[in-house]
Design goal:
Blueprint lengths: L6 E5 L7 E7 L5 E4 L13
Antiparallel strand pairs: 1-2, 2-3
Length: 47
Amino acid sequence: MRVTLPYTVSQGTLLHRTGRVHISADADGTVWIGGDTITCVSGFVEL
C-alpha cells in the first residue's frame, strides 16, 4: 500500500486502546515516525 505523507494510522482498537502512529517527512526526505508511548517492559541487552 502506498500513502501520501503526513499519514496517521490507528492501532490497538480491538484491545480498546486508541493508539495513533504519525508518519511524516522533512523537506530533505528524513522520515519521522511518532506517537504516544507507555513503557511496558524495560531492561538491557548485552551483545
